[in-house]
C-alpha cells in the first residue's frame, strides 16, 4: 500500500475506534466495575501533592489505615504508605486527573479519570498497527488496527483506567521497536526498547513480560548482548521498586510481596477459567472475538513459528506471567486484555492469507463469530429469529463450497460469501460496542 493511503486509512480507523470508545465513556462500564480506577488516581495525586503514596487497599499488611467517603458516598479504606504496586502508572493517572482541575481526592470522579483511558485506547489502536506493520507489512497493520478498533471486549474494556490498558500500547511498541532494531541496526530503537523495559515494570511488576518478550526476540535473532541488556534494565527496574518500597516501609513492603506471591488460587484448572467464564470487567460478556481469537492464534502460529515469532514471544511472555501469578482472580477481566492484541493481529494474518485458501477453517470461525454477535446485537433488540439464524448459516456454508465442489465459480462464490460475512460481522461488532450496558 502507498504511504499516503496507509496514513489516511489509519486515520479513518482511529476516528472510528475513537468514536466507538467515546460513546458511553463515562457510563459503561459503570462506576464501581473496578475501583482500581480511583486507586491508581489516588496513588498519583498523593505522590504529587504529599510525596507519600496513599491509596485504596483491603489488605491487612497495612497498619496506617483511615476510612474516606468521597462526594458520591463511596467508602474507601485508604492506606499509607501504599506499596502494592510501583508508582509510575499512578503518577501518570494522577497527572491526568490534575490536568482536569483535580487537587485532592474529593475532586476525583469518573469524568476526570477516564479521559486518560480514552487516549490510551486510541494509542493502543495505533500501537497494534505499528506492531503488525513492523512484522507483516502495512496491509496487515491496517487490517489488525481495523479489527482491534471494533473488537467489542477491547473497545468497551479500554474505557476503564486500568494498568493493563497502559501496558498494552507500550508492550506492542517495545516489540515493534525491537523488530526495527534487528532489521535496521539503528541504536535509537534499541535505546527506546531499554527505556520501556525499565519503565514498564515500574508501572506494575507483571509487566516484566514486556522486557522478557523483547529479550526472547533478540535471542531468537542471535542478539545476545541486546537480550541481556533488556533483562538488565528490567532487573534494574525491579531493584528500583524494592528501594522505593523499603524507603517508605520495609515491613509493609515485604509483607505485601509475600501476600502477592501467594494471593491467587493456582491450579491446573485455573487457566481454563479464561475459556469458561468470558469476563469483560466483573461481568460475563459472551464475545465471539475472544473465543475465536484463541483458535485463530493457534492456527496462525502453528503454520510457521519462525515467521510469527513476534506474536509468539509476545503472547507466550504474557501467558507465562499470567499462569505464574494471576489466572483465577474473580471479577478481574482486565487481566486478559493483553492477550487480545495478539488475537487481532492473528485474525488479520488469518484473513489476509486465508481468504479463498482455507475455506474449511474460515467457515466455522466466521460462523461462530457471527452467531455470538447476533446474540449480542440482534436478539436484545429484535428477539431471536429462526429466519435470520438460518440465513446466516446458509451464507457461511457458502464459504466452504470450494471444499466440496471444484471450479472457479465455486471459489468465487466462497470468496464473495467470505467478504459478505466480514462486512456483516464488522457492522454487528460496532453495534455491540454501542449497545453495551450493564442494566
Automatic annotation (TrEMBL):
Keywords: Membrane, Transmembrane, Transmembrane helix. The keyword Transmembrane helix applies. The chain crosses the membrane at residues 117-136, 142-161, 188-207, 228-247, 288-305, 310-328, 334-351, 363-381, 387-405, 417-436. It holds the Pfam family PMT_2. It comes from the Bacteria. Signal peptide: none annotated. Residues 85-227 form the Glycosyltransferase RgtA/B/C/D-like domain. This is Glycosyltransferase RgtA/B/C/D-like domain-containing protein.
